[in-house]
Write a structure and sequence with these properties.
163 residues, SH3 type barrels, 2 domains, 3-stranded mixed beta sheet, single chain, 5-stranded antiparallel beta sheet
Length: 163
């Protein structure tokens, strides 16, 4: 019998720990990043709640998650790091199904793996969403056009600010 092991990334491990801590504290864990910038590692957690988060929320959650990470028997983070907790901002990422559902009717930015009509990014109003595709209403000069995008072709999606 072949032994199979599941290797989780640092982000996956931290997400598994931070998600329940955030939920218990009344927050939504929006995103987790673990990145090296220069010679330093940064663990960034983005939280939100109805009405948004402020500096006090970020400080409280930073203390809670710091304690929880320190209490782990096996350290989920392989390097010394700086912990940062913040709001996802006005252009929050749309990573979960729930995020996309809530974004219907809102202006979003979508980056693609493969180009459509020579473009690999689009901004428009998310009109419809199903399991396979999403439909954006985009503006080309003075007219609106609907574009259907296969969800498997979406590299990243986020809310966007319309100018």
């Amino acid at each position: 019998m072949i032994e199979r092991r599941c290797f989780l990334s640092t982000v996956d491990k931290v997400t598994a720990i931070a998600g329940p801590v955030a939920e218990q504290a009344g927050y939504e864990l929006v995103d987790v990043e673990y990145v090296k910038e220069g010679k330093n590692w940064f663990l960034r957690l983005y939280i939100d709640k109805d009405g948004g988060v402020d500096l006090d929320d970020c400080t409280k959650f930073s203390e809670k998650i710091g304690e929880e990470l320190d209490a782990q028997k096996v350290d989920p983070i392989p390097h010394p790091y700086y912990l940062e907790v913040s709001s996802p901002g006005a252009e929050r990422p749309l990573k979960k199904e729930k995020d996309l559902i809530e974004a219907v009717g809102k202006y979003i930015h979508v980056s693609l793996y493969q180009q459509i009509s020579g473009e690999n990014t689009f901004e428009g109003t998310l009109k419809e969403l199903n399991d396979q595709t999403l439909t954006l209403v985009i503006r080309i000069k003075t007219r609106e056009k609907e574009i259907e995008i296969d969800r498997s072709n979406i590299a990243k999606a986020r809310l966007a600010i319309k100018f």
